[in-house]
Design a protein that fits this description.
By secondary structure, this protein is mainly α. It has 2 domains: 50 residues; 79 residues, no CATH class. The chain has 4 helices and no strands. The radius of gyration is 17 Å and the shape is globular. The protein starts with 6 loop residues before the first helix and ends in an 18-residue tail after the last helix.
C-alpha cells in the first residue's frame, strides 16, 4: 500500500460519509414538501454513497493507471470536505467557503496565487447566488457568522 489507501478502504469511507450526510439531511427542515432545504444535501449524500459503492465494488486491475498515487488526493478531498462542514458551524458559510475554496483548488492542482485568491472571493459569491438566491436554501447558523454583520 506504500502510504496510500486501498480503493476498498476509500470507497467504504465515502459510503459512510454519504450515508451520514443523507441521515443528517433528514434533520433539515420540516420535510413537508418534496423539495426544500434538504434536497441538495440529500442528493449530494446519495451521490457520495453510490460513488463510494462503485469504488468499493470495482475490480482491481493488473496494470496501474498513469495517475497512480491519486488515491491520496481523494482521501484529502474527503477530509477537507468534512472539515469544511465543521468549519461552517463555527465561523459561518462565507468565511468557511473563503477558507476552503483555495484549499480545494490547491488539491486539484491550481498553484497560481491569483487564481487561489480569486477562488477565495468568487466561490462564496457564486455559491451564495446559486443556493441562497436561486434555490432559496440557506446555510445553518454558526457560532460566529460574518453574515450577522452584513446588511441584508
Amino acid at each position: 500500500m506504500s502510504g496510500t489507501f486501498s480503493p476498498k478502504i476509500l470507497g467504504s469511507a465515502i459510503v459512510l460519509l454519504g450515508g451520514g450526510a443523507m441521515l443528517t439531511a433528514l434533520t433539515i427542515g420540516s420535510g413537508a414538501s418534496a423539495w426544500g432545504p434538504r434536497t441538495v444535501p440529500m442528493l449530494a449524500g446519495a451521490v457520495m454513497l453510490v460513488t463510494g459503492l462503485a469504488v468499493t465494488l470495482e475490480r482491481p486491475t493488473i496494470t496501474k493507471p498513469a495517475g497512480e498515487g491519486r488515491e491520496i488526493n481523494a482521501v484529502w478531498l474527503v477530509v477537507l470536505s468534512a472539515l469544511y462542514v465543521l468549519i461552517i458551524g463555527w465561523v459561518g458559510y462565507i468565511v468557511a467557503t473563503a477558507i476552503a475554496a483555495p484549499a480545494f483548488l490547491w488539491l486539484f492542482g491550481v498553484r497560481s496565487r491569483i487564481r487561489l485568491i480569486a477562488g477565495m472571493v468568487v466561490a462564496p459569491i457564486l455559491l451564495h447566488l446559486f443556493f441562497f438566491e436561486l434555490l432559496g436554501i440557506f446555510p445553518p447558523r454558526a457560532v460566529w457568522d460574518l453574515a450577522d454583520y452584513l446588511p441584508v
